[in-house]
Amino acid sequence: MADATKPPADDENGTEKGLAGLRSRLRLLYHGQSPKALRFQATILVVDLAIIAFFIASPLLRDSASFLWIDYSIAAILALDLTARGLASTHPLRWLRQLPVIVDIFILITLLAPTWFFNLGFLRILRLWTLSRSSIVWRPLEKRGLGSYRDTIQAVINLLVFLFVVTGFVYTAFAQRDAGIAGYVDALYFTVTTMTTTGFGDIVLPGTFGKLVSIIIMIIGISLFVRLAQLVFRPNKVTFPCPQCGLSRHEPDAVHCKACGHLLKIPDEGVH
Fold it and tell me: GO CC terms for this protein (predicted)?
């Protein structure tokens, strides 16, 4: 006699096929090159940029009556996007272990519990860093021949992320504490003057902890500026892995690998 509590095999097969079909469609949308997929990826990119703009402005909007509604709406969008990207991945467990995904999950947690993670809300700007690692951003740029500027664009993004993360931290930790920081703009002003080592001295973080924070901002900030300057003023290089030794960065007109001397055949457009 058949077990009445056991679901029919056809239902199980139908569920598996339905899930496989959903994953296949999501994979085509997130990683495909069809006009429909490109429109979807462009929409995702615009939404991500809008979310990042909200994260940058959130210190100024936190007292607004609509702040929590926007916060939870973004949490729902980010949760939906994370779930869809996880289903679209070939190896979900390996995908979950990637640093950008871990950062996105942490950002989602701060959105779901904004009052508990109030002091960590400034870390949401790391979403800009995770977005800069996405193929959705770089695929259209590479198709337009801008792939050789990837390192420079990445350096600019790293600098902006550091700037706004530090500004959020300074605002959260030192506002209204006799540091001369009365608002978010003051925190941004202090961060910029410290990063550039201008140091006007009109705003000074109090105590030993404040001095240590200032030292860290100066060291990392000037390092990021130097890195950006190197990428802007040095000759552009192309990405083309050497078949012999694997060196991937070469001059656009290179004929031989400078590391091993192997003959290279770099495409004329300079992007592989």
Answer: voltage-gated potassium channel complex
